[in-house]
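Sample A.
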Amino acid sequence: MAKSVLSADSLKEAGNVAFASKKFYDAIESYTRALDKKPSDTMIATLLSNRAAAFLNLNDYPKALEDCNMALEIDPGRDKALFRRAQAYESMGESAKAFSDLKQILHRDPTNRSVVAA
């Protein structure tokens, strides 16, 4: 019963804790429950990007790609979602699409260490 009164912020934090503990299924559940709370667009984009990271860790690249695409529809400048989408593309053998996403990030932030390393 107490689960239903948790806020989107509390559920997001629970997801982050689960993610940090490598409990990716629990993280996905928490992020999904937070999305069900109908938070702000900014929070939705964050939750989708976070859930995509969990899906990536479970090698579920199609779901990661879907979440990244939805996050980028809300916030096209969200570099984390773009980077995670590039990771999903690369893992799915779509290197040209991955490179295109990484190039977009570097255009905005030439010092982005994760992208430079990729």
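Sample B.
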Amino acid sequence: IKAYVSLNSNEIGHLEESIEKKTYNKHDIIFTEGKIADKIYFVEKGCVRLFYNVNGNDKTAFFYTEGQFICAGESYTFNIPAVENYQAVEQTDIYVFSKSKIEILLSKVPKMEVIARIATENELITCQKVIASFVTKSAEERYLDLLNTKGELFLRVPQQYIASFLGVSPETLSRIKKRIHTKRLT
């Protein structure tokens, strides 16, 4: 939170009163489609996968790691059933902000509006980058971008989720990795 805005001890106290810390084990589902989102999550430690169920198949859309907020935004904002799912990829510690407590917190700590705005802007920018990468780049270029910007994911996330995120099969991801490794050796 300090990365977003500085809070005094009184404001930190109000924040601590408004949140609940939860720990999820590897593979635990944090939130499922069909429910109406009434919580915002903040990843303190760990990794969370956002995925959609498409005709019975999981399609990974994004990974959230330390310092990132998670919210099924459309569901949360418009009170409609969510279409996304969130799953812990590894043991994950999350702070949970319930909608009712957020309203109280915002009245006591107006700086939280700044945090909400910055978190929303960051999410929008990230979404735009993901969309642009699928429109303008090959799977190999998307792989290299991920390797260069979030390389630690390859050590934390199963390859099938990485492949799904890149929009390729696990076999295609293996071929891409082999091609890039061969290019780097020559």
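B remarks: The first strand starts at residue 19 and ends at 24. The chain is about 50% helix and 25% strand.
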